[in-house]
Amino acid sequence: MASTDATVTSTRDAVGAKPLRVLLVGSSGGHLAQLLRLEPWWSKHDRAWVTFDKPDARSALSGESVTWAYQPTTRNLKNLVRNLWLARRTLRNFVPDVVVSNGAGVALPFFMLARRRGIATVYIEVYDRIDSRTLTGRLCTPFSDLFLLQWPEQRALYPRGVFVGPLY
């Protein structure tokens, strides 16, 4: 997470102020469904998606610019490396102002490289994890400029997180 409140405030301002280039990164299924709930925001921006090549993703993202990530990502070193190269290529070809993700594992390589390139990152902790931190949340925290929480109880787990309420 960013080291100062000024960084968090400037990230919030940048994310809401003008049309942006947004890269939305998330696993298919519930993670993708939560990102889709942000349509009132992301529909106003030039955007691209990174997710898994699954029927729900193909249907929901029909007509969108999508890069298919490698899976599985959980504890799979080979696909972590493949997704790191994918992140490098994607961030070079579609240079976003901000990378937004709610996990899962596919988020990490994109957040690592975005941070290295000075691209803002916003992580949204998932809706269904209230009393413990997710693995991806723990791993992405150091690379997140803004870490958003859907439950007030999550503040105890992520003291620098910002409570925004549920996306559902």
Helix/strand layout:
Blueprint: H1 5-17, E1 21-26, H2 30-36, H3 39-42, E2 46-52, H4 55-60, E3 66-69, H5 77-93, E4 98-103, H6 107-116, E5 120-124, H7 135-140, E6 146-149, E7 162-163
Parallel strand pairs: 1-2, 1-4, 2-3, 4-5, 5-6, 6-7
Can you walk me through this structure?
It is globular, with a radius of gyration of 15 Å. The two termini are 25 Å apart. The chain has one domain (5-163): 3-Layer(aba) Sandwich (Rossmann fold). With 168 residues, the chain is of the alpha/beta class. The protein is built from 7 helices and 7 strands, in the order αβααβαβαβαβαββ. α5 (77-93) crosses α6 (107-116). A 7-stranded parallel sheet has the order 3-2-1-4-5-6-7, with helices on both faces. Residues 1-9 have low confidence and may be disordered. 38% of the residues lie in helices and 20% in strands. The protein has helices spanning 5-17, 30-36, 39-42, 55-60, 77-93, 107-116, 135-140, and strands at 21-26, 46-52, 66-69, 98-103, 120-124, 146-149, 162-163.
Short précis:
The protein is α/β, with parallel strands linked by helices and 168 residues long. The protein is built from seven helices and seven strands.
Mean model confidence by pLDDT: 91
Q: What do we call the CATH homologous superfamily?
A: Glycogen Phosphorylase B
Strand content bin = 15-25%
The total beta strand count reads 7
> Given this structure, which CATH class is correct?
Alpha Beta
- Class derived from helix and strand content: alpha/beta
Spatial shape? globular
Here the CATH topology equals Rossmann fold
Query: Which series of helices and strands comes N to C?
Result: HEHHEHEHEHEHEE
Share of helical residues? 25-40%
